[in-house]
């Protein structure tokens, strides 16, 4: 778990994290610079200087010479040492020496930005292109391209979950066409945090392009797990970054800034470009009492604002909610009360697998009330394993047990943490509700807490699961009944705070549906940002600025790619149309064997119905449908028609007309002609 900082300087202080051996060997360059490395180096330098000064100031005595095995290099007689010391003190006063060795984080960061300025190609007016490929007018599949001259990098690469109209589709990812077309410009990928809507599409992108990935430690750990699933382990360069670190991307540079969210190690970015600085908040909220890590680095946002921010790209998810988002610790207090109320019962808690702060509070309560924690759901198991391994979950030895062992304990000794808070049909909680879970059977001795808010569109699914669980006798607690969930996204007052600190010239709301973006834009106008300086974009828009103005100058491919099993992009609009047709209307198949040379129907037609009518109860309809197919075949054979597709079309049209006349609804008609 990340060490707590007590510094007054932007979250940094003298107590820094231990630098990994590998990182310590790297030279301090603008490409891989962070304050911890710098401070360690300067402390060592300071010690060496003090030691050297001490040796110079003290005369070389007989006693001192006996203590050392080797003579002091360049040692001089006593009187000469004194003279030299006086001369040095006159030339280099102590206060000036202190200024050289002691430097604040703010001063260091400023020096780094000055160095980075020299790396920019072109001039201050070199245009910057901001191209959202995903994440606008939707929730999910966040991906934004930043392009300047011949350099380009990507912020996030997430997925979205399919809506009810995407029959059979597993996930939705962004379209990578523009990135593939400009692969020579790609310098790297930076990730804000480890949620699925920000990293879920990364493995699919890295199968097409190879680029270094930069993210914080936990995020890298979660990415490694995904790459392993896609057989990409070891094929991609993964770089662990820290808040304060600056990563060079050609003529641009990305500075990591600590923010608070519902997952540890979340960051926003200050993107330094020749056109100016663009601040990207990532997903954020302002939590002054976070469960883990430091608070959002408001001081750094303010410092950027005082220097001048060209554009602010800010999280719009909760733009319709007034006030502030509550601290995550609110949920911890609610859990404590619910654990007390659940005395004698088994507790089952459903939440997002990536909400490690929430899981930590479950573990804390389980420890307090003497319960063991079992984990259900593949994604939950993977995330918790990674978090424990990397030190982001504090789990006492023996408190987490395998789900197979829960029957060895009485109900009051068990807490089950599971996926399925959104009512997903195949999730662990849904299978429990349907009595289809292999390890867990719901009984009246179960106390179930759904610690999440339904994502828009999932309300019916969640309600169904709740009803089924209650039918089985379980007690179910959800957000509207108790404070068992708080958002990880900023509300209006927090959004205003970021605007006030950064004071951007231009504003681009991101991460949300159109209504969220629109409301966030209205908030920005209320904060004094001119309406003409606000861009409400869409996926594929090329938003271009030279530092003086901003406008949409073009459009790039930015559709959605559907992933169905191992198939990526092979399910298109036509396939979806057919699936929709089959799901809503059903299927009728007409199979016939025909000898076209002799003009004879050898067998059939056989009429098969699936999802339209039950054949045994609709024999008259099926019989008449058979007669229609025979009539169309005979007419075609009499006319000597050899075009099979033409014959199939005639059969299809005839059946559709008859069926609609009889039942006032349509079906998918599939004529099949077999030939000898």
What does this structure look like?
It is a single chain. 36% of the residues lie in helices and 21% in strands. The protein has 676 residues and is an alpha/beta fold. The strands form five sheets. It has an eight-stranded mixed beta sheet with strand order 7-6-5-3-2-1-20-21. The protein has a six-stranded mixed beta sheet with strand order 8-9-10-11-12-19. Helix 10 packs across helix 14, helix 11 (298-307) packs across helix 17 (492-502) and helix 12 (329-341) packs parallel to helix 13. Mean pLDDT is 82; it is low at 1-35 and 57-103.
Average of pLDDT: 82
CATH fold label of the largest domain: Metallo-beta-lactamase, Chain A
| Percentage of residues in DSSP E strands | 15-25%
CATH class of the largest domain: Alpha Beta
Q: What does the overall shape look like?
A: globular
N-to-C CA distance: 73 Å
Largest sheet: 8 strands, mixed
Strand line-up in the sheet with most strands? 7-6-5-3-2-1-20-21
Please tell me the total number of domains: 4
């Amino acid at each position: 778990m990340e060490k707590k900082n007590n510094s007054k300087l932007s979250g940094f202080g003298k107590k820094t994290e231990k630098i990994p051996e590998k990182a310590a060997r790297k030279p301090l360059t603008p490409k891989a610079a962070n304050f911890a490395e710098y401070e360690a180096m300067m402390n060592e330098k300071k010690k060496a200087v003090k030691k050297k000064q001490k040796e110079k100031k003290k005369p070389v005595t007989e006693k001192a010479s006996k203590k050392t095995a080797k003579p002091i290099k360049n040692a001089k007689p006593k009187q000469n040492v004194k003279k030299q010391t006086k001369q040095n003190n006159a030339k280099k006063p102590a206060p000036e020496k202190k200024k050289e060795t002691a430097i604040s984080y703010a001063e260091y960061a400023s020096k780094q930005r000055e160095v980075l300025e020299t790396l920019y190609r072109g001039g201050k007016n070199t245009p910057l292109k901001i191209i959202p490929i995903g994440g606008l007018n939707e929730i999910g599949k966040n991906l934004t391209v930043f392009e300047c001259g011949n350099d380009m990098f990507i912020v996030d690469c997430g997925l979205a979950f399919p809506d009810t109209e995407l029959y059979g589709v597993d996930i939705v990812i962004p379209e990578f066409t523009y990135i593939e077309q400009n692969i020579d410009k790609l310098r790297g990928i930076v990730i804000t945090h480890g949620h699925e809507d920000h990293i879920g599409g990364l493995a699919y992108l890295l199968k097409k392009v190879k680029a270094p990935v930069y993210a914080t430690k936990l995020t890298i750990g979660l990415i490694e797990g995904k790459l392993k699933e896609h057989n990409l382990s070891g094929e991609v360069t993964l770089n662990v970054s820290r808040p304060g670190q600056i990563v060079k991307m050609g003529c641009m540079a990305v500075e990591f800034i600590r923010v608070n969210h519902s997952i540890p190690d979340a960051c926003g970015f200050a993107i330094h470009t020749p056109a100016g600085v663009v601040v990207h908040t990532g997903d954020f909220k302002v939590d002054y009492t976070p469960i883990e890590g430091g608070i959002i680095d408001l001081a750094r946002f303010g410092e950027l604002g005082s220097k001048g921010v060209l554009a602010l790209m800010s999280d719009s998810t909760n733009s319709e909610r007034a006030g502030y988002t509550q601290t995550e610790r609110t949920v911890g207090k609610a859990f404590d009360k619910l654990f007390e109320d659940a005395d004698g019962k088994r507790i089952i808690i459903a939440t997002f697998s990536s909400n490690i702060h929430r899981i930590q509070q479950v573990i804390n309560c389980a420890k307090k009330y003497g319960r063991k924690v079992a984990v259900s759901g593949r994604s939950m198991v993977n995330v918790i394993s990674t978090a424990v391994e990397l030190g982001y979950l504090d789990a006492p030895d023996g408190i987490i047990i395998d789900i197979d062992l829960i029957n060895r304990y009485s109900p009051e000794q068990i807490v089950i943490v599971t996926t399925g808070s959104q009512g997903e049909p195949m999730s662990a909680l849904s299978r429990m509700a349907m009595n289809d879970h292999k390890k867990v059977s719901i009984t009246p001795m179960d106390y179930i807490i759904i610690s999440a808010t339904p994502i828009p569109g999932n309300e019916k699914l969640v309600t169904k699961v709740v009803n089924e669980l209650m039918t089985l006798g379980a007690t179910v607690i959800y957000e509207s009944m108790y404070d068992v969930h708080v958002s990880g996204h900023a509300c209006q007052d927090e959004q205003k705070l970021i605007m006030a600190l950064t004071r951007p010239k231009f504003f681009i709301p991101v991460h949300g549906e159109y209504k969220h973006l629109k409301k966030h834009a209205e908030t920005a106008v209320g904060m004094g940002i001119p309406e003409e300086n606000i861009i409400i974009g869409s996926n594929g828009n090329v938003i271009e600025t030279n530092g003086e103005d901003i406008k949409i100058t073009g459009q790039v491919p930015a559709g959605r790619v559907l992933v169905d099993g191992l198939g990526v992009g092979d399910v298109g609009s036509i396939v979806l149309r057919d699936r929709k047709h089959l799901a809503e209307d059903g299927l009728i198949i007409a199979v016939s064997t025909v000898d076209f040379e002799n003009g004879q129907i050898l067998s059939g037609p056989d009429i098969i119905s699936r999802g339209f009518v039950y054949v045994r109860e609709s024999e008259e309809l099926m019989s008449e449908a058979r007669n229609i197919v025979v009539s169309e075949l005979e007419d075609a054979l009499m006319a000597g028609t050899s075009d099979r597709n033409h014959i199939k079309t005639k059969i299809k049209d005839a059946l559709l007309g008859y069926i609609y006349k009889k039942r006032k609804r349509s079906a998918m008609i599939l004529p099949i002609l077999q030939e000898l």
